[in-house]
Amino acid sequence: MNLPITAHAGLSPSQAKARLERDGPNELPKPARRTVARIALEVVREPMLAMLLAAGGIYLAIGDQVEALVLLLFAGMSIVITIVQEARTENVLETLRDLAAPRALVIRDGATVRIPGREVVEGDILVLDQGDRVPADATLLEARELEADESLLTGESLPVRKRPAEHGEALNAGPGGDDGQQVFSGSVITRGGGIARVFATGHRSQIGQIGRSLQSLESEAPRLQRETSRVVALCAAGGVAIALAVVVLYGLSRGQWLEALLAGIATAMSLLPEEFPVVLAVFLAMGAWRIAQVGVLTRRAAAIETLGSATVLCTDKTGTLTQNRMSVVELWSPEAGHSAVDANAVDLAYRTLLETSVLASAPVPVDPMEVAFHDAARGAGIAARNTDGLVQTHGLRPDLLAMSNVWRPSDETSPFDVAAKGAPEAIARLCRLEGEDLRKVDEATQTMARRGIRVLGVAAAQSGPDYPGKAIDDHLFQFIGLAGLADPLRSGVPEAIEQCRAAGIRVVMITGDYPVTAKAIAAAAGIEASGVMTGDEVAALPEAELAPRAGQTTVFARTMPDQKLRIVSALKDAGEVVAMTGDGVNDAPALKASHIGIAMGRRGTDVAREAADIVLVEDDFGAIISAVRVGRRIYDNIRKALGFIFAVHVPIAGLAILPLILGSPIVLGPLQIALLEMIIDPVCALVFEAERPERDIMKRPPRRPDEKLFSGALIARGVAQGSLAFAALAALYLGALNYGLEHDALRTITFIALVAATMALVLANRSFSTSLMHAFMRHNITFRYVAAFIAVGTALVLAVPFVRGILNFVPLRPMELLAAAATGLVVLIGCEVIKGRGPARGLT
Q1: pTM for the predicted model, two decimal places
Q2: Catalytic residue selected from 137, 149, 316, 681
Q3: Burial class of residue 382 (count of CB atoms within 10 Å of its CB; 0-12, 13-18, 19+)
Q4: Which residues contact 184 (CB under 8 A, 6 or more apart)?
Q5: 411 is catalytic
Q6: For 294-308, how does the pLDDT look when each residue is reduced to its tens digit (9 = 90+)?
């Protein structure tokens, strides 16, 4: 870089040391990290996992090691997964610090030295060159054609122009926008070079402020997890209380305290809802596996279900809706007019325009716009010139926003070729356009600009042997045309947004780009943008006024990270379930604050990925729709499983308590109930999880944000089904008791009838449809395997003498088996009648 760096002495080593001691290293402050032991302690305090551990302990205490080990295994897996995920979230600020502290070239005592970025201090003189990452916020003292990519901080897809600050001039307030006088930590120099004085390091820098906001944000516990934990705790408390009452009443009335204790354990087991946390853990784990098949990874399993309830999807523009790379999308020449460039196909009439734009660019491009020109030329079959032919470059000037390259001719008799590109008005001035010619150029420029296209003018000239020393203004340029560049939409984005609309999800675009560009991209993507709200307007509104405005706005432009965070918070305050997508450092606070943070996997920064709950592996925006579908399917199937759990525990509890009330022999002891749990657990954890989505799953609006998982209707329907099953089983029990069946035969027929009733409850809850035939024919291979397993297991229990002896069962006669099966059929028909009288979805 040809800048007089010796004119700046910089700090002395002693000054730098003193400031480093005063301000601390140029990195974000390290938070108090949670140890694995502390995370594990927090995890086991969760009621869900505590309930799993308690249930496993009860089964272990009564000697049922198989059931105990299964439950403890579920608990152990959940604890390990949670600890790993929680530990990963602790890496967010570490990743941010790594990004904020690259190595830096500074001037100390008049000499350039390269030091670790963490040792840069306020007042240091930075030497910046193309390709450098800026280590701290700094004010430019000198610059040569300097441009910086600040997309990580602003979301703008194009590099921005920078210039030195003049004496006494007011400085730009933050990153973004052309002709700023400051460079910011984390941005990349894409063109030129400069010398800058550091004014902010560490947490005082722009990227540091993002880090502080991340540090202060607390991830909100998933609503499903909170609600399940509360209900599990209530059910557990109620079950234990009833079990204690049974022990006392049984002991006082019969005087047999050992049997009373066994009766109490049986009652507790019949009421203990250990299936709730099992269902939640398995469903979310399987959901994570299912969405991984479509290229979506989850860092927090509960976020999958939450995504299914999202009412608003906030999306960044650059790198999320668009490809985060510039492309030549339109060409215009005075003779041929406008032409869209589709897949690098260029009409012959525009080849000269494209070839000249390449000659006006760097032979080895770094700037995204120049890369786009080279890509378009290569696609059109235009070969680039040998870099040895470039003899001089004229850079941008404050008074002339155009640059040009001068190329040596192929032979000494030919003139030099001069190619220029830049702002259309600057190129028009170089070509000395006026009158009708100038009006046509202005009209074409405005036409493209209104569509959010970045427009550059292109001109060409020739120079004879007198070229050396000739200024760019002295050439007789001929206007060639205009080139329009844009960051194109990702494939499938309009279709995905249309599916969001059909599913009742409002898509909101939040970007750092200019309003015109934002509105154009929104229109192309299919986002209805009647009005655009800027970041300054967001900052100016108080919280009470921002929420209603945010609820009616679909495009936010020129937003800074703290403003994105305010928008997400305002939507949450308005009662929306907010999903947020993004890929840059500037998106990280909003990603973490939203209910569901979604980061891009390939182009996304580590900071964004660590702050998010879900990561799109292939940066496919359409994969979000697949994740929403899985989330809604999980929620529906959890409701089906919970309805079944409520229903199946009613007859089990009733048959455990009924003999105590009647003074008759107990038919369901801990062993029989444990065996029933071996049927119920795989049904809950496997059959309902594998149920196919309902037909209207993506054509209905999201569930209401205030809708309860354990709604009154769900519980009432489950209790009604369970009461019907208990009534049928009680009738069979009383009939068999009056018929004079022996104790073991009574226990056996009641148990087999209970198995049949359980399968009837499964069929009744498999679908929200009222069709009994649909319940039988609905495809679910897992249900078929589980049903076959239960049938074979029941047959073995009755057929194998050793097993019968352990369970105190006896062989049943054909009529007794028929009576047990008929009980299940009565339960199924009755449940279908109950379902037919409720709402079709059975959720409200």
Answers
A1: 0.69
A2: 316
A3: middle
A4: 134, 137, 148, 150, 153, 174, 175, 205, 206, 207
A5: no
A6: 778 777 766 777 888
